Sequence to fold (481 residues):
Amino acid sequence: MRSFTYERAASPAEAAAAAARQAKAKFIAGGTNLLDLMKLEIETPGHLIDVNGLNLDTIEPTPEGGLRIGALVRNTDLAADPRIRRDYGVLSRALLAGASGQLRNRATTAGNLLQRTRCPYFYDTAQPCNKRKPGSGCSAIGGFSRHLAVMGTSEACIATNPSDMAVAMRVLDAAIETVKPDGAARTIPIAEFHRLPGETPHVENALEQGELITAVTLPKPAGGRHIYRKVRDRASYAFALVSVAAVIGRHGEGRFAVGGIAPKPWRMQAAEAELPRGAKAASAALLAGAKTTHDNAFKLSLVERTLGAVLHEARG
Amino acid sequence: MTAPVAITLTVNGERLTRLAEPRETLADFLRRDLGLTGTHLGCEMGVCGACLVMLDGTPVHSCLSFAVQADGSAVETIEGLTESAAVTDLQQAFHERNALQCGFCTPGMLVTAQGLLARKASPSREEIRDALSGNYCRCTGYEAIVDAIETVARRRAASREELPA
Fold:
């Protein structure tokens, strides 16, 4: 691993200001993804700003009747929180479907939102990858692409976002609170947080250099059945081929987002409008314009079947 | 190389101050600087679980944490858990049930088992299996490990019932 300098931040605003001072600075929280990438020299920060001491690890009610989740709340603690389990069951279930218990003990809420793709060519530093090395080309297009995206892709990149948590947060209309290096705070709706690759697949989210996530807020609980169903190659500790996060009402109406198929959690109003007509109609609306490869075309029917299973479960 | 940073932490009950280079992982720090080689390094990417230690009472991968981040924390390794007798019954059950062969994964297995039983006194076999999904064993096929942990859960529950209220 390349060497780097290290500091512990004293406040969120100071952390952001410190990160803006150095071009090669990065924040470190749980580190479960960052250390991995640093060992492979895919991430090579010159300076790490440890944010673990910033006291951003509580879950508090908001005046609007929702919850404000501190950026440093660990995935294990978030999944186990009684309010999350009761009012936002889809989020608790999505968290428990991700990684392993040991990783969830360390992984944070903000870090989970920022985790990088698990595209095998992003991880293989001997191969070209536009995300890792802009302009070098994409090895996944025409390569082994069983796990890769069918929606929201570009000629430059077909990587997926690997998060389970983010799919549930998307269906719950979560918002991301940040502080910028100048001390200004802003709120980014999760729908606008992750970026599609276009010609700049190395730009993955809306954060500016040095901008620090401080919390994720959830609006008032949405009534209905909260379901998260994840389909993967083995029963635990694997990334989703397809996952569905849904909140479904009594007449089959509701909302859903799909993971494992795009560079961000994939959700469309037009598809939700089709929900009462069933999984075939809703998934057809969601997947209009899909671009598949030889390896991942199966995901189109897998989305329909997984959504079908979710709607079946919601009726039961 | 960047300048080492002074860190103060408690390892297996002993408070100590050492210098650590920022890029040194907690696993390397425990093994190389403190000679606590019971923490094993397998995959070095948070998959196999051989490097698990208790960090402030919670099982975490010491290969995915920098030593400098453990400043102010309490770390327990398999050596400390053994010395304090916290896992004696688990070790005994693993031995009785042949829940290890080469033994490389065993320290991590014991840390996971201890963490699971602290959180949930009587886990189902399915819950034990789920907890072990972050621990790889290439010898046993897991069945004996699940048996051993289940046995200890029962024994601990029984001994709690025998205690006067």
Remarks:
- The domain at 5-53 of chain A is CATH 3.30.43.10 (Uridine Diphospho-n-acetylenolpyruvylglucosamine Reductase; domain 2).
- The first strand of chain A starts at residue 5 and ends at 8.
- The radius of gyration of chain A is 19 Å.
- The interface with chain B takes residues 1-6, 8, 28, 31-32, 35-36, 38-39, 48, 50, 52, 76, 99-103, 105-106, 236-237 of chain A (CB under 8 Å).
